[in-house]
Amino acid sequence: MTKLPDFRLETYFSRWEFTARHHLTASDAETMSMAELLALAGPEDREAWDTLTLGYTETFGDAALRRAIAGMYERVDADDVLCFGGAQEGLNLAMQVLLEPGDHAVVITPNYQSAETIPLSLCEVSGVALDERQDWALDVDAVAAALRPNTRVVSVNFPNNPTGKVIDAADFVRLAELCDGRGIRLFSDEVYRGLERDPACILPQAADLSERALSLNVTSKSLGLPGLRIGWIACRDRELRSRLERAKHYTTICNAAPSEILARIAITARDRILARNRGIIAENIPRFDAFFAEFADLFEWRAPDGGCVAYPRYLGADGVEEFCTGLVEQAGVLLLPASMYHSDLTPTPADRFRIGLGRRDPGPALEAFADWLKARK
């Protein structure tokens, strides 16, 4: 593998995620116990779980799981789905398959670091920043201007991590048409789909819009089941799907059999799980609204359009990096400062932090946060 830079966010989490008293920057929705998830299983899936043997599984993924995943799309069949060990493996292998030296890619920023650094390890990459001054809007004309004759991939993420932005559906359709017209692959990270605050804002999935596009998703974020480590790519280009499967032979080879059955239970019951998780976020948002209103001199706050993370601005004179460090070290409240979302491709805000809204009962964390802020005055 090409040498990759230190993964700032994951390194930061290695230090703090399981030692901080209050994880207030979680990127996943509230999880479930095994008992809760198994209670959602239909008779066939429960039988499969009870009689499971722990042998190898299909590289493409369990056939019943891929059928369940295909049911999430309008134009995708089970044979258009390839499962991975989480979304990160899917992103990594897709870029390895799609990009070569001499190619060019376009990446929307801010974004999860590997969406930028993996393409950069393979070829030239241009960034197009969401416009912070225009509520994180995407300028499709700016994407068009960034394209080159050798552009092979345009990579996007909506609902966006960390901003929670969902762009207009018309802009997303236009982006897909732009890519198709130029023979470019649209790679769409859709891991927060299903947690939009307004159902009217839910975007079409890229794999439904274009036979060439790739839709990335996972059980970790919207469904709140990161421990399963099941992600997938949906793409109607069977030749590309075959190349992705061969690339997977060099990584995980196949997924864990227990995780595949649990994932298909969750995906089959996704409407109930997503409704529960949207309810948690809807209940939490007024609490965060009230918190940031109390400290309006220190923060500029906006609730996300979708997903379960937001990206407020910190207005304090000490700067967001020192602020986040002091908060976790002194109060045990973990946030992610803007440096975790620094881009080498575009200017990125240096005064923001990621906060998570998807976990039940953020009250103790917000109380500890507020007490710390008051003690500093």
From TrEMBL:
Gene Ontology MF annotations: pyridoxal phosphate binding; transaminase activity
Domain called Aminotransferase class I/classII large: residue spans: 54-357
Sorted UniProt keywords: Aminotransferase, Transferase
Transmembrane helix recorded as keyword: no
CDD domains, alphabetized: AAT_like
Keyword Transferase: yes
Protein name: Aminotransferase class I/II-fold pyridoxal phosphate-dependent enzyme
